[in-house]
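Page 37, continued from 36.
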């Protein structure tokens, strides 16, 4: 049954999305930032990808666009994973939030914002979730200095 869903995804999403491959049992689509909300909505509504698993990023210094934002979805009905990859520019690292489609995306987008500095447009709560207020920089960027000292913050009771 998963093979049939993969074939449907290839037929119906590839004209929009472009490159699509099957990698380690997950269907991977390369998208433009404008295509992400449309394809994610179709995955949820038409193909039954009811679980948003994760969002993260990959830093490719020296490449343009520099950042690759990676969204992971799972269908509990078809037992299939889909990965959507979207590249964003270093000068304006932002992409549409998936919070309107998947409420759980809120916390995951906050983590990605903390670690990489990618802004999720439409997520009104991008407060730090892993780092503290006042932390300078984004520690998972490849140009983040490992020896950088952070400003001390007073301990609150």
């Amino acid at each position: 049954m998963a093979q049939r869903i993969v074939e449907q995804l290839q037929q119906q999403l590839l004209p929009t999305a472009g490159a699509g491959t099957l990698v380690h049992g997950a269907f991977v689509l390369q998208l433009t930032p404008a295509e992400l909300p449309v394809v994610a909505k179709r995955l949820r509504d038409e193909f039954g990808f009811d679980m948003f698993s994760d969002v993260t990023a990959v830093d490719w210094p020296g490449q343009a666009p520099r950042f690759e934002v990676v969204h992971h979805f799972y269908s509990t009905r078809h037992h299939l994973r889909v990965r959507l990859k979207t590249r964003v520019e270093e000068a304006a690292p932002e992409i549409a939030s998936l919070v309107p489609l998947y409420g759980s995306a809120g916390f995951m987008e906050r983590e990605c914002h903390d670690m990489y500095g990618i802004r999720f447009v439409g997520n009104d709560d991008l407060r730090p979730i892993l780092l503290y207020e006042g932390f300078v920089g984004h520690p998972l960027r490849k140009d983040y200095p490992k020896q950088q000292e952070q400003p001390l913050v007073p301990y609150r009771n």
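Residues 64 and 89 are 7 Å apart (CA to CA). Flag for discussion at group meeting. The chain has one domain: 2-121.
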